[in-house]
Amino acid sequence: MATSQSRRPLQDVAYAESQRLAADPNIVSVGVGLKLVGGKPTMVASLHYYVWEKLTGADEIRERGSEHIQNEVGGYKTDVVQMRSSRRLNCPTNKRPTGQRGEQREAPLVGGTSTSILTGLHNFAMSWGTLGGICFDAGSNASMAISNAHVWDGDIGDDVIQPFPSKRDYVGGTIEWLACGGPLSHILTWTAPSPTTAILTSAAAAAWVAAAASDAEDPTRWGQRTGPVPRPGVKTIRERIHIDAPLPRLPFAGRHWESKATWGYTRDTTAGSSSVETTEVRPNEHVLVGKRVFTHREVYSPGATVNICSQIWTPAGDKDPERFVVAHSFPIKSPERVIQRVLHPGTACADIDKRLDYNRKPLCVRGFKHQLEGVAAVNFPILAAPFILIGEDSSVLLDPGPDNPTDVTALRLPDRILAFACPPSTHIELTVFHRGSPVRARAISANGATVSEEATPSDANVVHKLRLSGPEIIRVELAPGRSKSYLAGICADKHMIDVRKWKGVSNYYGGSFRLPLREPDGKWAVVVVSQSLDNTPTNGNPITAARRLGGIMDSANVTETGECVCEVLFDATFDVETVELL
Asked: Do residue 512 and residue 561 come from a single domain?
């Protein structure tokens, strides 16, 4: 069999065969598909020869003037598939061949109608689009529905519903949607409802309210300060505040965003009413530079004590860097079993961090796997755990060979930006090569800020290393040049960094909890939440007190890994393993 490096692309072989056999009286066409074994498809690409009739022996094939199909052509397996002719029927006027997009229910179900997919979190519709049609499984003849990947971009087991839910059903679920998720990586995501998802849902709402209503100045005090002052002897009956602030896209707590808010203040007095109004862009001021979370060991036995450390990076200009920090730990398979511990400031975690840093190893992916054997084309998203590659276009893989200077299968960067989500990291190393135009990369922190940017030299067809560093990197974007560019590897680690480069101040917090004695083996996750404290002294300046709201979450714990796909960030993970005594 020809090797993957020497054989021609599958579609090229299929085209050449279709041209060669164009005059064959029994072979209708040649295409590509999945290899059939016992009538059931396998995950192996093959050439499909469609015939009017399957002929059983060499003599019968020769008598028909047809050609015998070899078991392998051009390095690919082959299948002979008999064509099925169908008789067209007139469609009854009361049963349209295609449905209509909208909120009406289609019965029977036909292509063209609107559908949506439900995730495992709150049964909230996460994506929607048009049903392509009804089809049948080639192996079992079971009825199936088909649509585009971007329409039903969910997971095995997700429910698809029809009709598409009414827009009014989404009004009460806007914030809940922000805490959505999908199980794409055991390090990055989790979808089951739990107490922690409720906390993040409430935090998103609180951050938006704080930015829209009270961060810069209390609306009531603003109205009193800027509105008309009543004449002596006139009594104020009541004061009314009206706030109109559109919900910004992805208003997660701990992220940089802003909302254009309109404040209206009305004072009703014994002499009448007066009003004043203002519209300003109000940013979310409750944002950390980042955080870094680790446990003192990677593996624990049931009943052992787990020590959790969190390095919190607050803005250098923050006069009060102290935070209220809580760690939420849970087994990933049972996220409802959350163990919460308040982490306290101290130096013990700093000492542990220095000791562990010598032996911290990066998480790496070298090369990418074919989604379908023998097919170079790939579609996004691509899961290369612990990384999730997100692209708007399809792409192709390039196996090792004369045109690939690495020893692994590389991914060609699509024409538009390629992004990938990663576990919270401080260093990223990318292995790339190109045909003459530099590749640019930028690292994005959990708070949404760009923390590092690099570009390769212009040397073509040689391996380049792009190294990015910064606080809490959770997303990297790669922009190709005018020539073809390729990604061959990704590495990420959580080594210590000097956060002063990013105008941050570092403080360590630590705490611990004991695992249950009968805790089953499995992976646990840790999500650390940081909140502001109100340390304003009693009888202090009221304007200052208004700006020092306590209890507002400023840690970033949710990230976007695709269009309409949001994930809860796991700040750290560890394993529980039972040690058997001999």
From this structure: yes
